[in-house]
């Protein structure tokens, strides 16, 4: 198969699946990693995609579809690390904190364990549990339920019932997108109800969104943008958006 034919198929698969993995392309075409690497480099240079660790996503990701966890773990990571450092300013020693499943909240967990000795963590995320399980002063409460293997999250009726028992001091809410009109939206169908329960029960909710999420409208509404205490994002946020949200009485912290 000629390179041009592979390129066409890669573009078609990317449009259909919203993300592609290099290992799958190697198997599909029966070619080496180096061949796929060159294909993706060329398509990136032509503006068709953005290369990430292990594969590629569209140049402008479609947030109306859920991007697989292995891909999300490699995109906008500097932005997520930056906002995590900002977000933990709102945590105090001994607090109870709810964390929903997301690569952003996994970064939050990594920062928390460097700054606090005693916290209670409520989560339905296996990566977050794995990150904090070695902290002797932490009480880590993991919900019961059914594991989403691709996302390493826990969902279902048992999860929702269990989560409803807890009233955290603070909930860090992640999301797939946010606009003033649609509010906070998410693509993880099985996780949204748990997110809503954590939000309803928490004393305070702080929304976490790297700058790429603003202006994006995803599948399911979680709550209105004004229903959280504030948003925390990174310094790449469009300052015009900050002003627009501010005029609606919504605070965005980015430094």
From TrEMBL:
The keyword Transmembrane helix is assigned to this record: no
Keyword entries, A-Z: DNA-binding, Transcription, Transcription regulation
SUPFAM superfamilies: NagB/RpiA/CoA transferase-like, Winged helix' DNA-binding domain
One Pfam family named in its UniProt record: HTH_DeoR
Domain annotation HTH deoR-type: ranges: 3-58
Taxonomic lineage of the native organism: Bacteria, Bacillati, Bacillota, Bacilli, Bacillales
The protein's name in its UniProt record: DeoR family transcriptional regulator
Molecular function GO labels: DNA binding; DNA-binding transcription factor activity
């Amino acid at each position: 198969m000629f390179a041009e034919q592979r390129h066409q198929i890669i573009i078609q698969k990317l449009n259909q699946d919203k993300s592609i993995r290099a290992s799958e392309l190697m198997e599909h075409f029966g070619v080496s990693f180096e061949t796929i690497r060159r294909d993706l480099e060329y398509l990136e240079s032509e503006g068709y995609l953005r290369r990430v660790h292990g594969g590629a996503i569209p140049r402008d990701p479609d947030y109306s579809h859920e991007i697989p966890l292995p891909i999300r773990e490699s995109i906008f990571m500097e932005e997520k690390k930056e906002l995590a450092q900002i977000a933990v300013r709102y945590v105090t020693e001994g607090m109870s904190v709810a964390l929903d499943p997301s690569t952003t909240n996994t970064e939050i967990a990594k920062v928390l364990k460097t700054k606090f000795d005693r916290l209670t963590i409520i989560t339905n995320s296996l990566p977050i549990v794995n990150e904090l399980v070695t902290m002797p002063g932490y009480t880590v409460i993991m919900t019961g339920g059914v594991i989403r293997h691709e996302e390493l999250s826990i969902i279902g009726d048992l999860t929702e019932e269990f989560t409803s028992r807890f009233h955290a001091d603070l909930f860090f809410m992640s999301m797939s997108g946010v606009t003033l009109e649609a509010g906070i939206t998410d693509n993880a169908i099985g996780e949204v109800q748990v997110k809503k329960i954590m939000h309803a029960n928490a004393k305070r909710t702080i929304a976490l969104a790297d700058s790429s999420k603003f202006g994006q409208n995803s599948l399911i509404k979680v709550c209105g943008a004004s229903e959280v205490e504030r948003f925390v994002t990174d310094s790449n946020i469009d300052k015009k958006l900050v002003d627009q949200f501010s005029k609606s009485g919504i605070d965005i912290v980015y430094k």
